[in-house]
Protein: DUF3078 family protein
Organism: Maribacter spongiicola
Amino acid sequence: MNRIASKIVKSLCSLLFLVTLVTYGQDTIPAPIIVDSVTVDSVAIDTIVIRRTVDKIYSPRKDVNLQIPNIDFKKTKTLQKGFNRFRIPSFWENENSFGINISEVAFVNWNAGGDNAVSGLGFLKFARKYKFSNFQWENNLELRYGLNAQEGRKLRKTEDVIRLSSNLGFKKDNTSRWFYSVQLNFNTQFSNGYKYPDRDTPISRFMAPGYLLFGAGTSYITKDEKFNLYLSPLTQKSTFVLDQDLADNGSFGVQEAILDADGNIITPGENHLLEIGILITNNFNINIADNIELNNRLNLYTDYIKSFGNIDVDWELTLNMKVNKFISTSLGTQMIYDDDILFDVVKNDNGTIVNPGVPKIQFKQVLGVGILYGF
C-alpha cells in the first residue's frame, strides 16, 4: 500500500513539473510585434489600430549631478571688448591724407646778414580704388599749394598743383597682371603765376594752361600694386589756354593771334590745342628702410603729327621719411620738359614777337618737415 502511494506521489510530482515547464515556456515566448505598423482590426469594423513599441525611459547615471550649479557673479569677468558687428564687404578702398610742411629762418643781430623768411606748403591727397573680379578702377586727386613770406617783400607762390588721374582696367583672368586700360589725366593750377618781381603780367592762370590726356592702352600692375606701367599707343592731349591774353601770345603751344602792322589783333589766338600721340606713364613705390619710402611718377608723351620723337617729360621723385605717426620729412624733385613752353621770348615796342623763344628744362627741388595725417 505504501509502495502504491509512493508511486502515485512521484507520478503527480512529475506531472506537476511538466505542466509548470510548459506554462513557463509559453510565457517566455514573446508574441510577434510589428513596429510602427498600421493594420486594420479584423474584429472591429472601420477601426484603425496603431501599435508601437514603448520607448525606453532614460535613466540618468548615478554619478550625474542634476542640481543647479552655483554661479558667483562677483568673480565673473565682464566683456572687455565690444562685439564686432558684421559689415557687408565693400569693393572700394579709400585713402585720404592731409599734410603741412613748414620751413623757417630767422636772424637777430646777424653780422653776415640775411632776411627772415617762412615757407609753407599744404597738400591734400584722395585715392579711391574699386576692385571686383577682373575689374579695377583707380582714381587719385592731388592738391598742393605753397607760399613764401620774406621780410621786406610780398608773398610769393612756391607750389601750385591740381592733378587728377583715373584708370579703368580689365584683365582676362585672375592670374594675369596685364590689364586692358583706359586712362584720363588732368593737370592745372589754382592761382596766377608770375615771373617775379613783375606782378602785373601773369604768365599762367587757372586753366591757362590746363592739360587733359585721354587714351586707351595696356597696364602692367604687380600683385602688391607698388609698380604700375601704362602704355598707350593712342592718346589725345588737349591743351587749354582760357586766358585770352596768354592765348593771343601763343603761350603753351596754341595758335597765337594775327596782328596788323600797328599791332592790332585781327584774329584772336586760339584757346585750345589738340594733339594725338603716344603716352607712357610709370608709378612705383619702394620701401628703402623702415619708415623711408621712395615714390616715382613719370609721364612721357610724343605727338604723331606735329613733332614725333620730341618727347614731353614730367618726372617727379619724392623721398618720404616718417618720424612718427604724425611728423614726416619729404625731399622732392620735379623735372619738366615741354617744347610748347618757350622761354626768353623777345617782343618789339608794338608787341610783335621778334624771337619766339626756346624750350628749356624746368627743375624744382623741395625739402620740408611737417605734419602728415591720414583719415
